[in-house]
Amino acid sequence: MDVVRNSHGSVNLTQALDLAVRQFSAGDYNSAKITCQSLVDALPDHFVGWHLLGVIALQTGDHASADQHLERATSLDPSSHEAHNNLGAAYEQSGAHEQALANYRTAISLDPSFAVAHNNLGNVLQGKGDLDKAIKSYETAILLRPAYANAYFNLGATLLAKNQLPDAVDNLRKALSLNPDDFQIYTHLCTALIRMGKRDEAEDCYRAALMIYPDDADTHYHLGNLLLELGRTAEAITSYQAALRYAPDFANAHVNLGNAFQNAGNTQAAQQNYQAALALDPGHVEAHINYGNSLAESGDPHAAVASYRRALSLDPGHAVAHNNLGAVLQELGAMDAAEASYRRALDLNPDNAEAARQLSHILQFHAYDDDIRAMERRYSRVGINDRQKMHLGFALGKAFDDLGQYEEAFGYFESANALKHRQGVYSSAGAARTFARLKTVFAEPIEAPRPEPSKQQQKPIFIVGMMRSGTSLVEQILASHPQVQGGGELVHLRHAVTSRLGDINARAFARRFNQASHKDIMGIGQRYRQSIRGIAGESTFVTDKMPDNFLFIGLIRMALPDATIIHCRRNARDTCLSVFKNYFTANDYYYAYDLTQLGHYYNLYRDLMDHWSRVCPGSIYEIHYENLVADQEQQSRDLLDYCGLDWDDACLHFYRASHPVRTASSAQVRRPIFTNSVNLWEKYEKQLGPLLTALDK
User: Fold this and answer.
1) How distant is the alpha carbon of residue 552 from its chain centre?
2) What is the pLDDT of residue 78?
3) Separation CA 274–CA 258 (nearest Å)
4) H-helix or E-strand containing 335?
């Protein structure tokens, strides 16, 4: 009888092996190692002892010992398929992939039905990038062992790497059915579902994964990304905050939380998160870019330029940063520099259709040139996606409109608008209900309270009307005056109203308004004043040219009694054509991309403005675009006089002003007034049938 001596005294061989196996199975690897070492010390050629020692070393991450012990085991019994498989695993862990492949293949040659070796061989092949051979190995493993969860998972993961998404999902679901608590399977399945566009299923998958591992920051982060993409901003914020709770140094989570806050209109929180990301990772290019975006949107274009330039100092080849820098330089009137930035963005990424669209708006096309040819080539390229085609469509429409080739131009505009219209939802009936509700809520003449003397500094001037009705031109004229600071299109009034009364599109708005106290209404004005304080600086007046503030005229009259309201009017057909020719970055204007819906919305706007004129008599100054471009000086003098401003010659040369212009008119208002947009609709009359029919209803 063979006897082995260890810390337990003398035991026979069978007892020693039994003890080692029990210790190993219980996870007591150190005791199992001691027992096995005693065994091989006593019997140096004991295959099972060396084999088990190698497996223990493999399990504990002792790669060098695993290699050594398993090599010894295979030398003692070259016919052991299990020993060769385990030696392959040891080599794989230590990075010796060729030796791993050789041993897995030896194991398979010794036992072709050994499913584990086929699976492991697939793993090494997958790691080497030989995905097709890896797939065959996994499929063989599954054929040999139909309930092999790990092989299904590996096959699904490899198919995912090959972007064979339906098959990947099928195999990952099979793996999950066999091993429903495997977190790793869920994460891969979520990725596959996201790539397939199955967002609802992906959300369920992420939430199921979090039931298994609720403190996984990455999963909270990816769920947040999905929710943000779905437009569920508040839920996305919650997910990103959870990710940061479990991983406070997660810079990407700070960046995307900033993006979510920016979408929600909370600029301060957005910028705090971008700054937090940059404190963690000063070289985070996306954080610099998104911080720049937020600064630009909040009215600080100079700081935005600095942020984009920092991003480009880190990554000079970042096309998006060049494009966004171009947009802010255009806003600031630095047209040559903006053009250079757009062209650099296109050099780096010729498929950057957004840069092409923005470049087209600062160029004046006088001939069929290389820029147009380049856009046409990209537009007709096989594989172009809808988003690229949309931006290029608006760009090519602008180019051919400049050339007077109106039929060609309209074809591009029509296609671009159709592509944009698909991205969102607009309800004509819903809009009609909102406008009717406003007329009901503000049915009686509105008596504005007497302005409080202490509140009369930084007097707001609201410039309202339909988009493309001349609001940018009017603001640029006013902002050229030394006492006026141009604010651009500010979201502050809508946010102030929503904070007190909720969304004006909601049925509850009427009830909340009727229940609101005088203090509540004045609180809207106070919040608005606080929000524009940083914009106004030392100026007495600050303009707000958000066009659809016309929805809030009743509330402006009540909450901001000292505010001036300027209503810009323009020929309805020219206005709507100009809207249809342009892309708008905000997602609130999906009516703009369909001629019938656009005409319907214009009629609602016109009717509501007539209502405001009745209930707010003498409170709204109307300026007509056609009169302004025909006689700029007299119209400008009358405008300034109404606002209580003395004449200043700078208002005649508004196109020289350095005031930022963040609208689709940013290039136009940098040039002297032109009249070629008056009655332009006549050039497109035969294409505008649906619009003309809608406007006449």
Assistant:
1) 29
2) 93
3) 6
4) helix 335-348
Residue 581 CA to residue 405 CA, distance in Å, equals: 14
**41 sits in which H/E element:** helix 29-42
- 510-529: pLDDT as tens digits: 999 999 999 999 999 999 99
pLDDT of residue 5: 47
Task: Please give the Cα distance from 526 to 68 (Å, whole number).
Answer: 77
CA distance 20 to 431: 77
pLDDT, tens digit, for every residue of 665-688?
Answer: 444 544 456 777 899 999 999 999
Q: Which residues contact 75 (CB under 8 A, 6 or more apart)?
A: none
Name the residue among 226, 192, 597 with its Cα closest to residue 424: 597
Residue that is written with structure tokens 């092999």 in the block:
148
* Pairing mode of beta strands 620-624, 541-544: unpaired
* 392: three-class secondary structure by DSSP: helix
Cβ 413 vs Cβ 580: under 8 Å: yes
The rounded distance, in Å, linking the Cα atoms of 429 and 246 is: 45
Q: Is the dihedral of CA 580, 582, 587, 588 positive or negative?
A: negative
Both tokens assigned to 241: 């905050």
Tokens of 46: 């004991």
Q: How confident is the model at residue 453 (pLDDT cuts 50, 70, 90)?
A: low
Q: Judging by DSSP bridges, how do beta strands 9-12 and 3-6 pair with one another?
A: antiparallel
Structure tokens at 660: 């930022």
Instruction: Tell me the per-residue pLDDT of 96-155, one tens digit each, with 9 for 90 and over.
Output: 999 999 999 999 999 999 999 999 999 999 999 999 999 999 999 999 999 999 999 999
334 CB contacts (<8 Å, ≥6 apart)? none
Domains of the chain, by residue range, sit at 428-441+455-695
114 alpha-carbon distance from chain centroid = 48
- Give yes or no for a contact between 49 and 36, defined as CB atoms under 8 angstroms apart: yes
**C-alpha span between 508 and 515 (Å, rounded):** 11
DSSP strands (E only) in 592-670: 620-624
Reported residue count of the chain is: 697
Per-residue exposure over 450-470, b if at least 16 CB sit within 10 Å of its own CB, e if not: eeeeeeeebbbbbbbbbbbbb
Looking only at Cα atoms, what is the longest distance across the chain? 119
CB burial string 287-321: b at 16+ within 10 A, e below = bbbbbbbbbbbbbbbebbbebbebbbeeeeebbbb
For the domain bounded by 428-441+455-695, which CATH number is listed?
Answer: 3.40.50.300
